[in-house]
Amino acid sequence: MDYGLWTMDYGLWTMDCFSYFYIIMEESLSEQRLNFLRQSIGKVITTSPSNFMNWLAPVLIKAEHGILVCQYTVRKEMTNPYQILHGGVTAGIIDDLIGATVFTMGLNDRFTTVNNYIDYFATASEGDEIVAETAIVKRGRTILNLQCEVFLPSKKRLIAKGYSNMLNIG
Question: Which of 40, 104, 144, 149 is close enough to 166 for a disulfide, judged by CB 3.0 to 4.6 Å?
Fold first, then answer.
């Protein structure tokens, strides 16, 4: 049925004019947000809307559409009684950075965490520099699935890998 919408053919898929303008608008918002974030590359983040991120005090290393890389220094208050990075702090890093990654996508809607699934592989100690990197796994209309890997570069170890489903709440 023809509704009078023009379409654009991109080989594998076709897009109506409304979807095209939505994606153009989204890309523009994504670029605006990325340009804002890129001003902080190499700096400690202390003015995030996330108070938890401010407490974590990450250094932004890279900001791309759907990708963030941050470096964290493990502080005493981030450790458990064994003086290693607390699993809850690792989970918090993963959850918080995945949330910030959604911001880079330029979406107008708000998203909230539905679940986190985290595998822990190695430890980090007070004073260690760890790096977390996010990526989009799958983008749906209602649910986004993202991943975050946390590394200990000095020992070439993967500390943890987590996945999160983010729900579009409007």
Answer: 144
Q: What is the pLDDT of residues 92-116, one digit of tens each?
A: 999 999 999 998 888 888 999 999 9
Q: Which two tokens stand for residue 20?
A: 């095209």
DSSP-based three-state secondary structure for 152:
strand
> For residue 87, which phi and psi values (nearest 5 degrees)?
-60, -35
Task: Let me know: does 37 contact 63? Beta carbons within 8 Å.
Answer: yes
Cα gap 96→68, rounded to integer Å: 11
Using one digit for the tens of pLDDT, what is the confidence trace for 27-57? 587 777 777 777 878 899 888 889 999 999 9
Strand 67-73, strand 59-64: pairing? antiparallel
pTM: 0.81
Domain residue ranges in the chain: 7-168
- Cα separation values, 150 from 17, 43, 166, Å: 40, 19, 19
Residue 29, amino acid: L
10 Å CB burial of residue 105 (0-12, 13-18, 19+) is buried
Contact 132, 164 (CB under 8 A): no
Residue 21 in 3-state DSSP? Answer: helix
